[in-house]
Amino acid sequence: MANNAGTLDIRHLSKQYDVDGAPLQVLDDISLRIEPGEFVSIVGTSGCGKSTLLRLLVGLEQDYQGELLLDGQRIVGTSLDRGIVFQEHRLFPWLTVEDNIALGLLNAPLTEGQKRFAVRDHIALVGLKGFENAWPHQLSGGMAQRVAIARALVNRPEILLLDEPFGALDAITRSQLQQELQRIWQAEGITTVLVTHDVEEAVFLGDKVVVMEPRPGRVRRVVPVPLPHPRNRTSPDFAELKEAVLAEFGARSGAAASLAEHDALAGAL
Question: In terms of C-beta density within 10 A (0-12 exposed, 13-18 middle, 19 or more buried), how is residue 132 classed?
Answer without folding.
Answer: middle
